[in-house]
Amino acid sequence: MECKIKDIVINYQVIGEGKPIIMLHGYSPDHRLMTGCMEDIFSKKSGYKRIYFDLPGMGKSSSAEWIVNSDIMLDIVIQFIEEIIPEENFLIVGESYGGYLLRGIVYKMAERVAGVAMICPLIIATHEKRNVPQQVVLVKDDGLLSKLDPENAEKFNNNMVVQSEKIYERYQNEIIAGINIADVTFLERFQKNGYEFSFDVDKTNMKFDKPSLIVLGRQDSSVGYKDAWNILENYPRSTFAVLDRAGHNLQIEQEDLFNSLINEWLIRVEEL
To answer: How high is the pLDDT of residue 24?
Structure first.
């Protein structure tokens, strides 16, 4: 499906009926990053309307020169929400940059948000200011790597802490497939000039007191895990989990534990 906002087209997909859940993917992939890890959970549940979409310049959503910073990106996401589920309360799940935008939504319209789940959330926009561990591979699959061309092998080595045939297949289908169709020129310009909000999204007097989940990878060399501790007090109903054997794609590397944490979060949401 398509939703037009000003002169851009947002590609989106709605699965199921019930309480709306806005799914926000990370920077460069598309909505398949979220369908890949969330539909296995929600296909076994009823009562949830999952709303997956591609952020501007990613997936099949168009970009525009006037989208120059994350403030505007956040405004587009909020306009999309107002268009698709006007006046309804909703849940949000955000991965990486999607977790940054998620906190922007809470900052702007917390009264309509019934719960949040952050997967490896981006906390500090400037990479040089992040507290991140060195990149490491804990479980290497030399047999798999020998089958790949050198470029794919290097990318897989640089992005995954745990390696296996299944993980590689999911990595290709859920992450790389989206990255391959992204508007690279737009994304590089955006990240260089406007990746950070103009305001401190985590500096607020308001406590978000709805069920929350913050799940991080102990070996995440992209956004790390230590910086996220600084936002914990903003979410007094939050489970804060740091998973070993997990990097920036922990939903793939620690699938069973990830699924359990999301399911537990939903139990808390349903108790409200």
So the answer is: 99
- Across the beta sheet with 8-15, the strand order is 2-5, 8-15, 48-53, 19-24, 90-95, 113-119, 212-217, 238-243
Per the structure, how many domains does the chain have? 1
Residue with more model confidence, 204 or 136: 136
Q: How confident is the model at residue 205 (pLDDT cuts 50, 70, 90)?
A: confident
For 19-46, write each residue's pLDDT tens digit: 999 999 999 999 999 999 999 999 999 9
Dihedral angle over CA of 208, 213, 214, 215, nearest 10: 180
- Cβ contacts of residue 2 below 8 Å, gap of 6+? 9, 10, 11, 12
Domain carrying residue 207: 2-270
CB atoms within 10 A of CB 7: 8
